[in-house]
Design a protein that fits this description.
The complex is a heterodimer of chains A (about 110) and B (about 190).
Chain A (H helix, E strand, L loop, with lengths): L2 E3 L6 E3 L4 E5 L11 H9 L7 E7 L7 E7 L5 E6 L7 H10 L4 E2 L2 E2 L1
Antiparallel strand pairs in A: 1-2, 3-4, 4-5, 5-6, 7-8
Chain B lengths: L11 E3 L3 E4 L4 E6 L5 H11 L9 E3 L4 E6 L2 E6 L4 H11 L6 E4 L4 E7 L3 H6 L16 E6 L2 E7 L5 E6 L3 H11 L11
Antiparallel strand pairs in B: 1-2, 2-8, 3-6, 3-7, 4-5, 5-6, 8-11, 9-10, 10-11
Helix pairs in contact in B: 1-2
């Protein structure tokens, strides 16, 4: 059972109270973008074994979207953070680095 | 105008705990900036309460205010006076970004009381209800089996639940099943 702490209401919510929202920090390519960028934005997703950044929504709760950093292999949760950011905060990066030195995820790394 | 009726007309059931539909309750969804002095004053004027802390409910003689999310409160007032309160809030917050809506008729209210109340709710909601973890004045939005709902505990040890009126029958049947006399687990006994 995955348990994530909602950064908005502080509830340690278990999976059934949450809704998975896919990959975090996607950069939108819309009208005017090249076909290649638009294709990658629509279809290309990370599928790592290890550190992963995701969006979640506390759907049966305060209703807010937030981000979570976790390990897809061990289900270990490194931390959750606000949705109002386009990259993981340093605090979260440090927490991941402490457990998975040398990690990388898309353009982000320790 | 036709007479307003609650979803289940005050149905009640006695088992491990007493489950009852508590009838029509006045409810207002109020969204806005909690930090704004005008917002705080409007809440105070409507309910006699200050804006509650995270996952708390504050109550007074005229009403109660529950924390729903970082930008949303649930105001509980007298059913008959809801429209007047909404009008009063809208006037007080004119020009300020906010939303105040009467949601009374979209909701159903239940009370679960008695010795087994904690267990009855704990069986159907993913919340730690151990004494000390959930106490009077605490408020929690969560799910009850398959439907969304919110609940709080009052000073008298009664749990109050609110959910959408469209799922009132589901909620009532769920709570009654959970309160079945032969289903005691005794985890909080």
């Amino acid at each position: 059972m995955l348990i994530l702490e909602c950064p908005y209401c502080g509830v340690h919510a278990e999976e059934t109270e949450l809704h998975a929202g896919g990959e975090a920090h996607l950069k939108r390519f819309g009208p005017g973008a090249s076909d290649e960028d638009f294709h990658d934005y629509l279809f290309m997703r990370e599928n790592p074994k290890g550190v992963h950044l995701e969006r979640w929504r506390h759907v049966n709760g305060c209703g807010k979207w937030f981000h979570a950093a976790r390990c897809t292999m061990t289900l270990e949760v490194f931390g959750t953070y606000t949705a109002q950011t386009s990259e993981p905060p340093q605090e979260i990066k440090d927490k991941i680095s402490a457990k998975r030195p040398g990690w990388t995820w898309r353009e982000f790394s320790a | 105008m036709s007479k307003a009726q609650s979803a289940l007309n005050g149905a009640s059931y006695a088992g491990l705990a007493k489950v009852e539909e508590t009838g029509l309750g006045g409810m207002i969804t109020l969204r806005g900036d909690f930090a704004s002095a005008g917002f705080q004053a409007a809440v105070k004027a409507a309910t006699g309460c200050d804006v509650p802390g995270v996952r708390k409910i504050a109550s007074s003689e005229v009403g109660a205010v529950a924390w729903m999310s970082p930008d949303e409160l649930l105001l509980l007032v007298d059913y008959a006076g809801v429209d007047a309160v909404v009008a009063q809030i809208s006037e007080a917050l004119a020009g300020e970004h906010h939303l105040a809506v009467n949601v009374s008729d979209a909701r159903a209210c239940f009370a679960v009381s008695g010795e087994g109340a904690r267990e009855v709710i704990a069986k159907v909601a993913p919340v730690d209800l151990a004494p000390g973890q959930f106490e009077a004045g605490d408020f929690r939005r969560t799910r009850f089996a398959q439907v969304a709902g919110a609940f709080w505990l009052d000073e008298a040890g009664v749990f109050h639940i609110v959910c959408f009126r469209s799922v009132a029958v589901y909620m009532y049947n769920l709570l009654c099943t959970s309160a079945h006399p032969q289903s005691k687990v005794g985890v909080y006994a």
